[in-house]
Amino acid sequence: MILSDADILQRLEDGDLVVDPIDDLDLQIQPASVDLRLGKEFLEFQRTNIPCIHPNSEQEVDEYVTETVVEDGDDFILHPGDFVLGTTYERVEIPADLIAHVEGRSSLGRLAVVVHATAGLCDPGYRGQITLELSNLGTAPVALTPGMRISQLTFTELKTEAERPYGSDRGSKYQDQDGPQASRIQSDDEFGGDQLERK
Ligand SMILES: O=c1ccn([C@H]2C[C@H](O)[C@@H](COP(=O)(O)OP(=O)(O)OP(=O)(O)O)O2)c(=O)[nH]1
């Protein structure tokens, strides 16, 4: 079951679901979602001399990515074909019986700004800001202003609570994200590994 505005408000009031801060309930609480605003930090991907990025190399990933913080009153210009990581301004806490989906807003989609290249799922138990995968599929640069409503979060109730929510003993490398976080796929090994055994 997807939570309605009334359900969301109730869960926020109960305190187990957190979206913080919400400065304007009327603006941010939508009929079945919460609008989230854009933070001011971005990770941009540099041209690199490395022939390719090995996802399991922390050094190569770090070399590829640089951080930009937009000054107050300025915009971040997302050029056609760009892919950058942004962050929500709000911090969220998802309880063990809910899963949240980050969706784009239609108004930005109509300007060819896509908020999620791939991922968009916030696990039960997840806490932190949400890293946004922003791209411009259009032909004109688009100005993104920190504080603008950039994405929306919907919540689906699980049939039963997650037994091992995000942040418990399993991989939880993005728990308590503060600002945009580059891929930490290289930590997969630490949490059990994704590598197939050789026969
Ligand atoms: O667009 C997104 C999607 C998810 N998350 C956060 C919340 C989510 O709970 C966590 C992990 O997401 P996911 O499980 O999709 O990533 P993973 O690469 O499988 O990480 P892990 O191995 O830690 O589960 O990252 C974001 O910040 N942005």
Describe it for me?
The protein is mostly beta strands. It has a single domain, classed as Deoxyuridine triphosphatase (dUTPase) (Deoxyuridine 5'-Triphosphate Nucleotidohydrolase, Chain A), CATH 2.70.40.10. It contains four helices and 13 strands. Strands 1, 4, 5, 7, 9 and 11 form a six-stranded antiparallel sheet that branches. Strands 2-3-13-8-10 form a five-stranded antiparallel sheet. The mean pLDDT is 92. Bound molecules: deoxyuridine-5'-triphosphate. Deoxyuridine-5'-triphosphate (DUT) binds next to β10 and β11. Deoxyuridine-5'-triphosphate (DUT) is lined by residues 102, 116, 119-123, 126, 130-131, 133, 166, 171-174, 177.
Set down the secondary structure blueprint.
Elements: H1 5-14, E1 18-20, H2 25-28, E2 29-30, E3 33-37, E4 41-45, H3 58-64, E5 65-69, E6 76-78, E7 83-93, E8 98-104, H4 106-109, E9 113-114, E10 121-122, E11 127-136, E12 142-144, E13 149-157
Antiparallel strand pairs: 1-7, 2-3, 3-13, 4-5, 4-7, 6-12, 7-11, 8-10, 8-13, 9-11
Notable features of this structure?
single chain, 199 residues, mainly beta, Deoxyuridine 5'-Triphosphate Nucleotidohydrolase, Chain A, six-stranded antiparallel beta sheet, five-stranded antiparallel beta sheet, 13 strands, binds deoxyuridine-5'-triphosphate, dCTP deaminase, dUTPase-like_sf, hydrolase, nucleotide metabolism
